[in-house]
Every structure is written in C-alpha cells, then in structure tokens.
Amino acid sequence: MEFLHFAAFFLLVHLGSVHLVRGSPTSDAQLLLSFKSSLSNPQALANWKADADPCSFTGVSCRGSGVSAVSFQEVAVGAHFIAVVSYLLPLRSLERLCLRAAEVNGSLSAVRSAGLPCGAQLVELDFSGNGLAGSFADATFLSVFCPSLKSLNLSGNYIGLGASGVANPVNTGFLLESLDLSFNRISDMEDLRWFLSNLGSLKRLDLSGNNFSGEIPAISNCSLLQQLDLSANGFYGNIADGVLGGCRSLRFLNLSNNHFSGALAAELSSFPSLAILSVSNNNFSGSFPIDILSSLGELKILEFFNNNLSGFLPGAVSKLTALELLDLSSNSISGLIPAELCQSPAFGLKELYLQNNVFTGHIPPSLSNCSKLISLDLSFNFLTGRIPSSLGSLSQLRDLIMWQNLLEGEIPMEIQHIQTLENLIMDNNGLTGSIPDGLRNCTNLNWISLSSNFLSGSIPSWIGNLSNLAILKLGNNSFSGSIPPELGECRSLIWLDLNSNRLNGNIPPTISKQSGNIAVGLVTGKRYVYLKNDGSSQCRGSGNLLEFAGIRQEDLNRLPSHRTCNFKRVYMGSTQYTFNNNGSMIFLDLSYNELEGPIPRELGKMYYLMILNLGHNRLDGLIPPELGSLHYVAVLDLSQTLSRVRFLCLSLAFRCFPRSISRTMTSTGRFPSWVSLRPFRATDTRIIRASAAFLCLLAIPSEAQSQVGRTRSLAGGKPPLLAAWQWDCSSLCSAFLASRPSSLRAGREKGRTKALTFETSMPIRSPTPATTPRAGSS
Fold this sequence. Notes:
kinase, mainly beta, 23-stranded mixed sheet, 7 helices, Leucine-rich repeat, LRR (right-handed beta-alpha superhelix), non-specific serine/threonine protein kinase, ten-stranded parallel sheet, single chain
C-alpha cells in the first residue's frame, strides 16, 4: 500500500492535476499563531501575538504583505514536525524555512498525512541538527510533497531509524538541486541503489557520515551533478569503471574516510571540471596516479592522506598548474622530493604536505619558487643535508614543519625574512648552532619547537617580545646560561619545555608574570600528540608534545625516544582553549639542568598549571606553600633536586584529608586555621618517591583530634601526625595517625634527598586546561 500511495502521489504532483485541499487557505497570522500554540516552549516566540503584524514576529521576514521566510537557528522552539507541516509549510508566500538546531522532533512520515499542501513558492527547507526520524523513503517523499523545492537540508538528524524500503521501484528523477542527508543513520543499500539510479536535476548531493557499507552502486542520470560527498561511510572495494562515468560535470568529489582499495578510477581523467578531489583515509594503493590526474586542468585541491601509495613522486605533478593544495601525507612514497615540483613559475601551490612518508635526500632549494606557499610540512621522513636558505624568500609562509628527519647544520638566518611565520617546528634532527637572532622579526610566531637537536648558546631574551608565542620547546639540547626573565613577558605562553640542557642560575620569579592574563587561543585547533614519559632514568622530562597533523599513530615507533622511553600513555586530539582572560601556563618542565636557588613562590600563581617538573637540579630552600594553589596540578616532580632542604608538606591531594579539612581547602584554597604545617629536615627522614602517590605530614592540635578519628597519645603531649596517602588519585585513600616519623618509612640517605613525585591518573589534556583528547597506547 505504501508503494502505491507513493507512486500515485509522485505522478500526480508532477502532473499538477490534483489539489490536496479545497477551499481558501488559512491566513499567515493564523498559521503562525497556531504554530506557536503547538510548541512545548511557546515563550521562545514571545512577541508572536494576535494583535501584532506577523511581519514583526521574531524570525519572520516578509516580501510585500506575505511571509517570505521563517528562520530560527539554535533557538529551542521545541516543535513537533507535524506542526511544521500543518502550519508553516502551507504559508502561501513562503520561500525559505530554516529551523536549524531548533529542537524539532517527530517523524518525516507526518508529511504523508498533511492537510494542506506546501506553499507554491517554497524553494528552501533547512531542518538540520534536529531530532527528526524516518526512512530514506520519507526524506525523498518530502522533496516530492513540495514540488517547487530546490534545496533540502536534513543533515544531523536520525533519518534511517524508521521503516526502510523505498516504495517506488522506478525512480523518475528529482526536481531538487541540492539535497543534504549527511550525518544521519541511513544504511540500506537497496534504498541507495534506487536513489542513485536517477538523480534528475540534482547538482549537490551529500550523503556523508551515514552507515552505508558495500560497493558504490552505479550513479545514473547525473549529468548535472557538480558536488558529491560520500565520505565517512563504510564503502569498500574498487571503484569500478562506469560507477561515476555519467557525472562529467563534477567539480567536488569527496570519497574520504571509507575503505576503498585498488587504484584510483581511471574514468576520473574525463572529468574536466573537477576542482576538489579528496580520497584520504582509504586503502588506495599503487603509484601516484599522475596519468589520471594530469588531464585535470582545473584541479585545485588533491587530498590523498593516509593511503598506501608507494613508488616515487613524479615531477610531472607540476603540470597541474591550478593545484593549490597537495596532501600526500601518511603514505609510503619514497625517493627524492622532485626538484621539478616548483620549477614552473605558473605553479601556484599554497599548501604542500609530504609528512610521514619515506622521502630521502636533500630538500630541493627550488621549493622556494612556489612563492605562494603558506604551509610546508616535510616532517617524519628521512631527509638529510641542510635546510635550504632559499626558503627564506617564501614571504607568505605560515608553517615550516620539518621535525623527525636527519637534517643538519644551522637554522638558516634567512628565515628571519618570513615575517608571516607562525609555526617553526624542527624537533628531532641534528641541527647545530644557536637560535638565529633574526627570528626576533618573526613576531607572529606562536609555536617554536626545536627540541632534541644539538643547538647551543643562550636562550635569547628577545623571545619575551613574541606576544603571540604559546608553545616554546627547546628541551634536549645544549643551551647554557640563565633562563631569561623576559620569558614572563610572553603573555600567550602556555607550554614551556627547557628540560635536559645546561641552564644555570636561579629560576626567574617573573616566569609566571603572564599568569591570569592569557586569553587568546592562538593554537586552537592544532593537531597534537602528547607522549607521557614513564619516569625511568633513561627517559628525561615529563613528556613530549608533538605537532601531529597528517601522521599515523602506529608510526610513533619511528621516534628515537621510543627506544628509551616506555610511553605510559599517548594522548591525541586538537587543542582548545576554555579559560577566559585568566589563563596561565599549563606545562613547565625545567628538569635536568643546573638550576640553583629557591623555588619561586610566584609559581603558585599558575592556576591552570598541570605539570611542574623541576627535578634533577640544584635547588635549595623550602618548598613554597604557595604551590598549594596549583588547582589543576597532575604531576609535581622535585626528585633529586633539593640539597640541604627542609621539606614542607603541601596539600595537593585534597581527597586524602578528612572532609572538614577538604571542605575548607576547597572553598578557600587554604588550610583551616587549626591545622599547622610542620617542616622536617631531610636529615631526619627520607621520603620515598612513589609514582601516583602523595605523602603529607600535618600537625593536628589536640582540640581537633576528634575530627580526624581515633588518636594515640604522643610522648610529651606533642600533637599527633596525620599521614595521608593517595594512590592513583582515585578513591583509594587512607588516613592514619602515627606517633613518630619513623612509622612513615623514614630513614636516612646520604647526599641529595629525593623529593616526592605527585602524579594523577587524570588525563594530560591538550595544551589547554580544559580539552579532553582521546587516549590510546603507544
């Protein structure tokens, strides 16, 4: 019956021979007020009143005396779809209806029982981001119900959850020009086969983010189709000749994030208008398909990331003169980067991503001929030799990324001419010399990463003038001298890693000067990986933050540190800021240097600091109680750093204290007035370094003993000691009273005393205090 109803309705609407409702339609005002009265949240439309002009209603636009558009985006009107069909679609002059993310629920099948037809002038419907359910057939039926409709957007709903099965075995084509069904739950391949058998007037079709699984059915009668997006599904197998053959007008084709294999379809060579081709995250194999692509004279964007391409990169790529973005990252392409790549002055390449391949040899100086380059990423290869000084002529370059290669020599001073430079990332190479003084001219820099090289000299004080600098990584080099106090002037700095150098002198208190003032998220959206070190003696520093765009996680074993560090956790994601005008540094690693003097109490101002590693230095004095204000701290490492020191127990593990103490500390950030901190000397006791544990000694007055449980009398009437251990930062906490420090595994140790390390199992997030990346394992 559904089949007969659908087929009959389809034909009658196209023939224009019937009217579903007789009589005069209801006025615009009555329809709009009826819609309001049906809402679960009518107050969202507070000024929709009977005595007002409908053209003054919120979200309503008029042309002449009739309502021409109704638009609500991210306004929770709380409508049922049957109310939309009954009261909004029949508006006689309505041209555009947008209810995007407006909490519209119900089933698309409601349109089948509509009492009034669509307005004859309706050309655009946008119901994206709602809770609409129904079948693929219901979605196509809606396009038939409104015969003048040109654009229908149903993305981000629950289509596919209703009864499946397309009713009409013969597809006579669609009058729609744009149909977006992306990110729904459509999976039926028979429905898809019927749908693709005749696209009619469609120019844009988006089926991305659904649950299709199988080989792509042949697409017929698609001569007008210009944009096709089938990404993020479960399609697999080879793309056979003839599947796309009739779509010769395609300008945009996205097949990424599927499981396609074999070679690229040869018929793509006959698509002269194709400008954007994305086939990333598939299993395409073979050599780079230059014979297919060379005829695409209008190709601007080619994305081949994360496939299985092998062989050499042909210099004939430069014949694609319209190409602006070339992404071949995470393949197995080997050999030299062709010198011909940028030989032609007509080659307008803007973005070149060749990372995570097997390229060898030198970086061709001719890359500087691509004068429009904005991003150049050659990281994670086996490139050798020096960085060409000619790259300094790339006056529009923002990203110069070459980490994890075999490059040597000095950083070219000519880079100082790239005043647009934002990201300079060259970790894990063999670079020597000092940081070029001319880099002070690159005032837009926000990520400088030069760790694990052989760089030497002092850390330049002018870095403090880089107001946009958010990440500075200079660890595992041979830098000497003092830490410039001017680093505190970097008002955007959230990540500072200077571990494993030869730095001496005091830790400048001004290093925390930017705390409470960071607001602008200059590294938002950057792909990263954070490798948390295991804390072994062979593995220095707290962890390694790496720019990680276009690199497979399974290739992390190519890192030299993978052989010495058993990474405890691998965190991946995209950076995101959440603090607002009150941010602070979140990562500070100064370990394995020769720093002296006290720990600055000003470090306690870094409210969002998550990792503080001062281990393996020559610091002395007290641990400042201000460190108790480090609200987000997850790793505090002072191991093998304090000589002739008196340890002052800090309360960072709030959950280990009695509730009365924890409540006071949580609300005020201070110990209760009746709790006194008792310092003890390193010569009196030895604190065993315990991963994921924290040991505190508190002197509790006798009048407060009742709040912490049973106590034992101490000789001489001295107050008892409360020892609180926290294991794995979980609920496994125990508090007990002891009569003397010896019960706390006290002992003596000659020479330098190991301080405690406090860690939690709280994930180390992206380089912002409130991002939750997904965790994996190395």
